[in-house]
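[job 4417] fold queue: 2 targets
>>> target A
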Amino acid sequence: MSTIALVLIGVSAIGGCQLLRNSQGTSLTLPAAGAVRIGSWNVHYILAENESGTWGTQHWEQRKLPMARLFKLMNADIIAFQEMESFSSGNEDANNLTRTWLAENNPDFDFAAVGPWQSFPSTQPVFFRRSVFTLEKQGWFFFSTTPDKIYSHTFNGSYPAFASWVQLSIKGTGARLRVVNVHLDYASRSNRKQSVELIVARIKPWIEAGEHVVIAGDLNARHGSSLHALIEGAGLQFVPVHGSTYHFNRGFNLFGAIDHVAYTPSLQLLGDAVVLREKAGDVWASDHYPLVADFKLDE
């Protein structure tokens, strides 16, 4: 019994150290003059056909005020969202509660990487500040052997997953920025690897054309993984992210960040990423924390 007790004490101590280590990070400050703040946030889908229970519509009514508060606290110019979906089986997206709520309460923002659901998968929008950016192009590709076929299943036949992207120009300067918004398979390592290989292939022409390129989203992989190495091999760098970005909808910060931002060296990073680990209400807004990072763009 004493041996078991010692083991339990040891496990508790290790867990406590992990919680402490993964709960620390950089404090959020105002962005520097001329900086562009880019954020990423997996906001968890709504089960639109479920009135009660976690992630149902009643839970959404509790989540939406904390989400709106965190959106404003981010003070971002661009935010790539994942799982912004009111799921009711199928791919129909006419009633996207989260996107509608945030758009209505933030009229200084527009959003892109959306369209009629029959021709554009709209659950990974990119919000951007109207006064700063103009939308030039948008698109998508699925993590699949048929990436240009909408809603095609992943490489191993599991649920569809995809990248959305936007090309924005900065008003007054003409500088262009391509933001690629990704959400990789949480369950399959081979799907994640092949998805990243496809991402690298798709962004290569943009990088070769001299574009500023940012990849933002939920990689479902911690820094230092082989996925990060593939993206770094394509010429991008990762913003340092300290501590957890996924917390089990409990505030349990058990392991390092799985949400990341990578960027081409043509952008100047102005410090490490900041993860907002605030509850901001009676319930957590999502099971992921939002994160932001500041950049300067040359023309």
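>>> target B
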Amino acid sequence: MKPQITIFILSLFFLKWDSYSQERNKVLTLETGTGYEVNNSRWSIAGNLQGQSPNILSELKFKEIASLGYYIKGSYLPFKFLKLKAYYKQSFTISGNGTDTDYKSDNRTNPTFDQTFKSDEGWHKVFKVGAGAPISLFRKIKVCPSVFYYQQNQKFYLLSSEEENLRSNYATTMQGVEFSLVSHIELGRYLYTSITINHRFVNYKAEADWNLIDIFQHPLSFSHISNGYGSGVNIDFGGDLSETFSIVIGGMLDGSIIKNGIDTAYLITGNEVPTQFNGAKNLMYGFKLGVYISI
């Protein structure tokens, strides 16, 4: 009888596991919490539209821009094959610095201006809304390919302890479409992990106010227009407190590359001077702590 008893017990175990796994696919879910992020960003322009005279005329770097904030995301499962999703995050800069450098010759040679600055004010927002198709691969593993409308807004400040009047800013907007794949893996009766890989294609627009430069107009001194792409990965771990509540911790790594575009300077004379925008690069990493609710 022992083999039969063993089979019976294992059958009950897998039946219980499968029932519990199905509980993850609740009709309505909500997750909210707090996060810490660090961002490094850089961009440059050339001396003319051909990307010459010199090939890098001015370069700006924002370094170790640390921020604290909150996020909220939710999903609704109207059908087994369709999951509607939304996500919003906002964070506020608490520390950071950067450099602003101008060059006379190609390849970052013969600098004519080199200034460091603080960047401990600003903010960062991300909004996404879309839909996915949940798929069960095994009892322990589920995936959900999704597509989103994606929008990211960020505002950097250039500040100085020595120059109180310095309050320049650089604000960016990225809009486009994002594709993602979420893998949900059951690690135990009360533990699970979620791995998300995403890739997006975006239009890029930036507007700046260089408030102490007299030759520029204010509040719009120059703008950047281009397009690019980005990718990211998120890894979350969850622990169930009950059938409804879980505690979630996670980490993320995200990067964007913006291609060459157009830089337009708006002069106080009324003239608009275009040059080549050499593109931008952005790398961000962060951590989060949240609460997950499912009903």
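[job 4417] complete. Note on B: The CA atoms of residues 240 and 246 lie 4 Å apart.
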